[in-house]
Predict the 3D structure of the following.
Amino acid sequence: MPRLVAIYRKPAYSPLQHLTNDTAILDAVVARLEETGWDADRVHETEVEGGHIPPASLFLNMAQGPLASELLAPLELDGAVVANRPSSVLKCHRHRLVRALTDAHVSFPRTLIVPSLGPPPARTVVDALGGDEGRVWVKRGDVHAERSEDVVCVPPDQVASAVRAFSQRAIPWVALQRHVPGPVYKFYAVADGQLFRWYNSAGGPESAGPPLDEAKLRDLVFRAAAAVGLDVFGGDVAVPSPERPVLIDLNDWPSFAPYREEAATAIAEYVQRRAERRKELD
C-alpha cells in the first residue's frame, strides 16, 4: 500500500481562524487519497523541526517555517513527490519572493526589502513609494502574517516607526510596498489549472464584484506560481483597471475555505498524478 505523509502547519503560521481552516483542507485531501488506497501518516511542522520525518513516497507539505523547509529539502533532492516543494515554500518568504517575481517580470508593486535594524530607509525613497496614494504597506519580510501587526499600511512619515516595531519583535527583514489602488481579489489554484477560483474580497465568494479580465488574471497568477514552483497556491491581486491586475501577495497552500470540497478533490487528483509519473520514472 503506498504511503503518504501529511505535514500540518505550525500554529504560529496559521493565526486565528486560519488554523482550523488550514487543518481542514489538509484533512480533506488526505481523506480523498485514503479512499484511493493510500496509507497516511500525519505529523506537525514542529515534529519535522525535531527531525521526525516518516518515510513515504508522497509528502503533502503545509510547513512554512525555514527550519522545517531546510530539513525537508533532501526529500526533494532525492526525487520524492513533495507538494509544495520546500524550495518553493522558501521562495515564498517575502525577501526571496520579491526577487523571484521581479526576475520573472510578473506585475507586482514596487517593493523594497530592508533590514529592520540600522538606519531607517531614506525619506526620499519612502515618499516615492507612497506616490499619489500617500501611504506605504509595511510587511514582515520573511513568512506571511502571523498576526495583524505583521501587515500595516501607514503614511510615509510613519514608516520608520513601523520598521522599528518589527525590529523590536526580532523580525530581521521588512518589506516596504507601494499601494496599488482598486478592488482586491482573492484567488485559489492548483498548478495544473484544474482548479482556479477567485472572488472580490470586499463582496465575498457570492459577489459578482467589479469587472475583471479573467484571462489576464489567470495568466498573472499562474506565471507567478511557476516562478517559484508552487503546486498548491493562492493569494491576492489588486485591480486598478479590469485589464491590468497586479499581484500583491502569493501564498503557498492556503486554506481554500470557500471552495474546500472541490479543492480537496483537485489537489488529491493532482498529487496522485504526480506520484504516478514519479513511479513510472522509477
Remarks:
- The chain has a mean pLDDT of 92.
